[in-house]
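Hi everyone, sorry if this is the wrong subforum. Our group has a chain we'd like a structural model of before ordering constructs, and none of us has done structure prediction before. Sequence below.
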Amino acid sequence: MSPDVRPRLLRVWRAFDVTDPHDTVGAAKPRGVFWWLGRRAGRGEYWVWVAIIFVLSIGLSYIDPDVGVAMTAPLTFAQIRRAHDFGRSGWWAAAATVAPVVATLPVLSMGLVTATLVGVAAELALIVLFGALPGDAGDNRFGPPRPFTWPVALTGR
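Answer:
Right subforum, don't worry. Here is the predicted structure as tokens:
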């Protein structure tokens, strides 16, 4: 690799790096483009984002029916922050994203409508589960619990 390419690759890597590996005191400090993924989201903040995603999904589905697939990413991001609130890794949100697809596989032989209904039911159950579970009352590895305020809920700061 040429010496010119390496610094550029490091800058790109750091932009998508969520935590600072050199932070040895306390929890790792979030940074980079996805800095807000390393924080916690309480139930109120989570439900605000689920409502926004739902409204956008319904509105944009009139333009393109495949927009529901695009709304998977923001929902997964909201679930990652919610999983952090109850002390779990963001991989739990990734599993929640894949679970409805896996749930449809056994019932595909019953027809596409049945498989779709099973997938939607599984997705709704996981959305409600993430929103209903209480977060850790005290600090956890993702930081202290954050009180709900509208600016915090909408900006993630």
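For your construct planning: Residues 51 and 57 are 10 Å apart (CA to CA). The chain has two domains: 1-38, 40-135+147-157.
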